[in-house]
Amino acid sequence: PVTSQFDGTYNLAIKPVTDPTSMKASALTDYSEPTDAPKLDAAMQTIGSVDSVVVTTTGSGTYQMHVTVKSPTDAVNGTDLDGSEHLTQLVVKGVPDGVTITSAGWTYYGDDGAGTNTGMWIKTVNEAFTTTNATISDDIKFTVNSGSENLWALNGHTLPISVTAVTQDVAGALTGDETVSTTAATHYLHISYTGEGDAVGW
Asked: What is the helix (H) or strand (E) element at residue 150, kind and residue range?
C-alpha cells in the first residue's frame, strides 16, 4: 500500500445541542383578570377533541394568561437542568387587531405570515433552567378594545391564540441552535358583541 505523511491544520467545531422543551397546556386556573373585567369571561370548552380555555369578550377589558415552559429534556439523559439550557424568547401568535399585549417587554411584529388576524408578539428572555428553576413562567396581559372595527368584523368567531417558547443551549462562548417548543399553550378568544361597543376608536 502507498502511504503519505504531511503536516496540516485541522479545525474542529464543537456545537452544543439544545434539548427540546414543551409548554404546559393552558388551564382555567391560568386565567385571571388584573382588574375587574365584567365584559370578559372564561370557561372550558371542547374545541375539536381538546378541552380548551375559551375567553369570551362582550366588551372591552384586560385578561391575563399564566404560561409555563417545562424543563428541557434529553431523550437519553432525561431532564437537563445544568444551567446551560436557556429560555431566549416567548412568542405569541394569533392575536387579532384590536387586541394588544400590555405586559412589559413585549414587541409587536405584525401578522406572522399565516394570514390576517395572526398578529405575532415576542418577548426576549435570557433565563437559565436550573435545579432551582426547573420551569419558567410568565403572566401575559391581553387588552381587548371592543371599539376596534376589526373585532366587530370578527363578531361570532372563535380565534386561537398560542404561546410557544424558544430555547438555546449556551456553554460559555458556544451556542446551540435555537429550538421552538414541541407544544404550545393555546387558549381561544370568542367575540360576542351587540350594540355599538364600549370603547373609543370605532
From this structure: helix 149-153
Cell readout for 119 is 398578529
Cα–Cα dist 70/165, whole Å: 10
CA distance 118 to 112: 6
Residues 128, 84 contacting (CB under 8 angstroms): yes
- Tell me, what's the pLDDT at 5? 78
- The pLDDT value given to residue 197: 55
Instruction: State pTM to two decimals.
Output: 0.89
- Torsion of Cα atoms, 125 then 92 then 185 then 127, to 10°: 0
Nearest alpha carbon to residue 56 among 192, 157, 199, 202: 192
Give the pLDDT mean for 63-91: 94
Q: With a cut of 90, say whether residue 183 has pLDDT above it.
A: yes
Burial 89-117 (b: 16+ CB within 10 A, else e): bbbbbbbbbbbbbebeebeeeebeeeeeb
